[in-house]
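Quick one: Acetoacetate--CoA ligase from Apiospora kogelbergensis, structure tokens please.
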Amino acid sequence: MFPRPDFFAGSLLNFAENLLFPNNVEEAAPVCFTVTEIDGETITTTWAELRESVRQCSNAMRACGVQPKDVIAGFVSNHVQAIVAMLGAATIGAVWTGISPDNGVSAVLDRLAQIEPRVLFADNGMTYNGKPWSSVDKTLQIVGELKTKGLETVVVVNNIKADLGLDGLKAQGVGAVDYESFLNRYCYELGLVYSGY
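--- reply ---
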């Protein structure tokens, strides 16, 4: 056909809402299994838990001033916290991008510096070959560059038993908070409560 018709002009679709609320699922049913290299460590997340975490995450991002089309980045492994951050960004209409913490600083900056994220979710480390490896030093270097590109907040996921590096991040002039505090308290400390998706 020529000219091509404009289908559904002006309509909006929320990607996160459609993923979080499919038909015929039970709240207590598992939706996600996070499995690591640590023997016996499997985390099961239910639909109810995922929905609540995404609600809290999007609230906290809104409290930080995140708007539609802002960029939210993840320097994170494949775990439920990464899914929550991605869906939290999508509920607002923000753009999500992620890169694995096993990448080097220059590779991360090649990707993230050009898109200028406002919020960065970063693992404090990862487990590889049965050993924990801290990524705090890499995160500090990455944040040092990204803060000149508009980075305002870093949310650190406690992925291994190691330092989160919050003091070093705050010293660089960005807001820094651990993931659990970000979801549970951060938005309330900033005085904003938004209950919807």
